[in-house]
Amino acid sequence: MAFCVLAVFRLSVKGESLMATYGWLFDPKRCIDCKACEAACKQWNGVETGIDVRYRRVRAVERGEFPQVSVQYLSLSCNHCEAATCLRVCPTKAIFRRQDGIVLIQEETCVGCGLCAKFCPYQAMQLNWQRRKMEKCTMCSPRIDAGLPPACTTVCPTRALMWGEWDQIKDQGVDQVENFSPPMLTKPAIRFVTTEWKG
Amino acid sequence: MMTRLDRARWFQMAGAGFLSPDANVLKAPLDSLRETEWGEEASRLLQWLESGDPLDLQREFVRLFLSPTGAVLPPWQSAREDPPRLMGPAHESATRWFARWGVAPRTPGEPADHLGLLLNFAGFLLEQEASAEELAAFHQDHLTWVPAFCERVAAEARHPFLAHLASLAGRLTAQRLEETAP
Amino acid sequence: MPLSRRDWIRLSSVTGAGLFGGQSLFGQFFQPAAAGPSAQTRTLVTACGLCDSACGMQATVTDNVLKFLQGLPGDQHGNGGICAKGASAISTAYDPDRLKYPMKRTNPHKDLTADPGWVRITWDEALTTISQRFGGYLSQFGKESLLFVSRNSPELWSRFMNAIGVVNRVDHNDVCYMVDRIVQRYTMGPHTFAYDFANSKYILLFGWDLLARNKVVFCHQMMAAKEGGAKVVSFNPMYSATARVADEWYPIRPGGDLAVILAIIQVLLNENLFDRDFVGNYTNFAEYEGQIRENFQKYTPEWAEKESDVPAADIRRIAREFGERRPAVAPLHKKTIGANHANATQIAHAIAVLNILAGTIDRPGGRYFPRTISIPGVDAIYPPPSYPSKTGRRVDGRNLLPLAHEANNGMFSTLADGMLNKFPGMIRGVFWQNYSLGGFPSPRHIAEALKSVEFMVVMDILPVDAALLADIVLPSTMFLEGSDLISRTNNAKSPQVVVRQPVISAPFETRSIGWLAVELGKRLAPDYFRTDSGAWISPSVLLDEKTKRAGLANSFAEFRSIGMVTKEQPFVPRTTFATASGKCQIYVPEFAQRGYAPLPEWKPKRDLPSAEYPFFLLTYIPGVHRRNSTQNNKVLHEMMPENSVIMHPSAAARLGLGEGTPAVVRSRAGQITLPVHLSQTLRPDCVLVAHGFGHVSRALTLAGGKGARDADLIPDQTIEEILAAGNFGGSGCIMDAAVAVEAAG
After folding, report:
1. Would an 8 Å CB–CB cutoff place C502 in contact with chain B?
2. Do A130 and B83 touch (CB under 8 A)?
3. Do B82 and A49 touch (CB under 8 A)?
4. What CATH topology corresponds to C615-743?
């Protein structure tokens, strides 16, 4: 596995990549694990339920021991990486990148082999075993094309999950937090706000 | 092979049967269907419709399709999807089909992809001499699920009228709509 | 335009003879309609109806099919966001398990497992049958023979119940906010859940856990508080999303909150750290100062530490901070503490005192009364004849709790005892609306009681367990299909009204409870459902009238297109309060007059751990579910399909339990079996079970048979037990149980 990742990494360095136009900005301290983003994603994209296909997922990770305990919440989806490994390992070339950097799966070409899932560090690739196809977050590209933000970001009640132009976002936060795989391999289009509350 | 118009009548009768299994609605149509190729089937349906306690038929109809404490086989195409739902793509597609032909269900609260409405409308398309392409498209959009569904209804039904209605509807839809005799 | 041949055939087939000679079979089910698909997409404003926050929503609808729900910019409640429950409401609207048509039972044998033998009936038959049965009981057995398990809203429904003189209306508020409502009524005025967190500098949370409940209106305000530099301190036996934003978290012993609050008050009084201006001018402190100081003197932080496990030094420091960092507030909300234990009334009173001493009642940064636009009610628009007196015995014994009786709420926790033991056979007809058996302590007792009634009507959106025992089932619309004017009260420093409008049309033959009120009213109490001109009251005309008289628009249709009205106004703090004295009352003379303690006193919770039941039971409502009503929603079901018994790893290890091990949880009331989930987020002496699961009915395709009911562990009560416990606010005690846990055999 380590060898494969390295090989892909080298490939990705050589391969040409389109720069991200849009990206996510996530503020973990503001997330309350409400999962409104997950629900909005399901509804707008009409994602099937009951087969554990989730384009976006809020993860809760407990740390420490009672009573010195804390919980980290991370709402994550596909990060539309600038050096996406999924795209490079797909044996049928079903994964492609739009001009604006959004990574999409061409359904007709996908054979549901799941190789992309093995190489995605962020568990973004979802196997729909009923249809034998891989699915994932499209950043709601049809909404973006219509001038609307992705569905998940429209409902977030605490503004923990934000989205916008990558040029505006990429310097607003850090590229790495605990429980988020190191970004240097794939260059995910996400930043994390780690500043403390003003108080 | 059944004529187009006879087939249209059978579709409309079957559709009506799944919407309202009521002697007041179905007696006259079944009477007239006794002269068709499936005349004997019409006679049997008529007999089952009129014999016994009408409440038994109503109870069984509700148990199968509408029970407020768990219907056995909800008769909407969207409810056959996995996971089941109402007003899914099949409802939207049926609504578009109806609108294109300038008709709409009289019961506005009923989703357009109810089995009875779809069968009834299939009969209407046959009656209207819709083109083979249109018939094929409607069959593909809305009737491919019906034979398997009707087989389950026929197996589950505890009333002979509904069991037989279902097996006839299954036979009707097992043959593609566009493969109707002129 | 001349008809084409196709048009001509079509019309004859729909309206004329068709294929069957004398009639058109197609035309019986179809009618001519405008040709051609419209594929029109619209965005409509509406208000959520899942909880009483009623966040504003934008609904995207294509050809009468709802596609997407999102927040409404400018809405004070949702702040442009909504929660997962609101965002998933589409999946409830389109749940194939929804109740669709009125049905009547033909099998007289009632049992949760027997086939009721349903047949479909028309609404007319349903209305006639209900009117005849209820009318018969009223005339033969009197008003006490009917039980309405139903909220006191909407107002048309409440008018109907008043018009026929329903004595026994029972709602869930004894397991919700009734205690707080009673205490507020006598300490500061009408009940409010509005807190001005954004301007608070110090926030003390006792069990208040609304971030974890995803009450959006409070979530974004708490974020604003944190951004504004507020310090937040949370006391809760479990660490949750709320404790996570707190600067300090104390895993307090269940029931010990009261001790800590009393001790904080003691420090505030002893060190004179209260707001002297407010307390001197707007409270009855001066009048009762001696009694007040004496009452709290004994509650030292050192004493409180023994009851709560919170260090005395921390209590003292927090009290000082609370007194000095103004404005400060201590919110209280419903289930999170207001109804948990037998000492809930004392807790609510102590928290009221804390807020009064902080001087923040109806002040910036405190608990305040919502500013609303006055919308006239149906009784103002169509004044009714005087209502009949409500004479008869009260089945739940609420009349023995005068304050609860006056509040006109409750009582779930004593209903089974009343029906089965106190007044067997008295209740003959039941109307049951929008409630779940799992919402009752000891639901098996309620199910037993319901089997004993002669005639029961259930109205709901979904096939709830109670429908299995019904004689008539009525299908209800949901909020996405309804119309109303929603006045906002949880974040309302300026008034804001949002429309609720049908973003989709009512499916099948579903009807609203307001419509039912008028239809039953016409049949059972016609004089109360006519206008001056003699015409029947029409819900839509009434709504037009309310819209006009409230100055929102010229008609409801016009307000539908406006969507939301906000009247920005300066916040002018109250100088008089709606109590008997016109002041905030620390000492409540009305309590003393009735023989209750006029000042909050220490009382332990009722059921304490013992050798037989060594753990405290805690319950919670998970943020992705709305009480018992959303477990069958496919999106929310996928997020959380069932519950578990959550334990600290050390406690589980002692019992030989690991992650996923099936365990039996037992209390004196009953037992449930659930898999164990290990977590470091709660006290080792507590066991935590999520509320809302364990629906019996398999008619709920997704939720039926999943998880277990926490309520099966919660003892129901007799009114005598409540009186003996000094629980004069009537808390339903929804967490007051101790349990044992063992591996399932």
Report:
1. no
2. no
3. no
4. Barwin-like endoglucanases (2.40.40)
Residues B88-141: pLDDT tens digits? 999 999 999 999 999 999 998 999 999 999 999 999 999 999 999 999 999 999
Q: What integer pLDDT is reported at residue B146 of this predicted model?
A: 98
pLDDT tens figures, B74-88: 999 999 988 899 999
Q: Which residue of B has its CA nearest to C65?
A: B87
Prediction pTM value? 0.95
B85 interfacial to chain C (CB closer than 8 Å): yes
- Cis amide prior to B29 (ω within 30 degrees): no
Closest by CA position to C687, among listed C713, C716, C717, C706: C713
Annotated domain spans of chain C: 195-368, 615-743
List the beta bridge partners of residue B40.
Answer: none
Size of interface A-C (CB pairs under 8 A): 137
Burial of C427 (0-12, 13-18, 19+ CB in 10 A): buried
Q: Which of residues 76-105 of A touch C (CB under 8 A)?
A: none
Query: Domain boundaries in chain A?
Result: 16-192
pLDDT at C32: 93
Segment 8-27 of chain B within 8 Å of chain C by CB? 8-9, 12-13, 15-16, 19, 25
Residue window 107-136, chain B: list those with CB within 8 Å of chain C. Answer: 107-111, 116-117, 120-121, 123-124, 127-129
C-alpha atoms less than 13 angstroms from C-alpha of B104 in its C-beta half-sphere:
13
Q: Is the pLDDT of residue C6 over 70?
A: no
* C23 touches B: beta carbon within 8 Å: yes
Instruction: Supply the CATH number for residue B130's domain.
Output: 1.10.3480.10
Paired tokens of B15:
């559709």
Q: Which CATH superfamily is domain C195-368 in?
A: Dimethylsulfoxide Reductase, domain 2 (3.40.228.10)
For C248-272, how does the pLDDT look when each residue is reduced to its tens digit (9 = 90+)?
A: 999 999 999 999 999 999 999 999 9
Task: Please answer yes or no on whether B82 and A130 come within 8 Å at the CB atom.
Answer: yes
C383: Cβ contacts below 8 Å, ≥ 6 apart: none
Q: Which pLDDT score, from 0 to 100, does residue C19 have?
A: 72
What residues of B are in contact with residue C698 (Cβ under 8 Å)? 70
Per-residue pLDDT at C5 = 47
Phi, psi of C123 (to 5 degrees): -60, -35
**C562 exposed, middle or buried (CB, 10 Å; 0-12, 13-18, 19+)?**
middle
Set of chain A residues whose Cβ sits within 8 Å of the Cβ of C635:
39, 42-43, 49
* Chain C interface disruption, residue of A30, A31, A32, most C CBs within 10 A: A32
| Fold of the domain spanning A16-192 | Alpha-Beta Plaits (3.30.70)
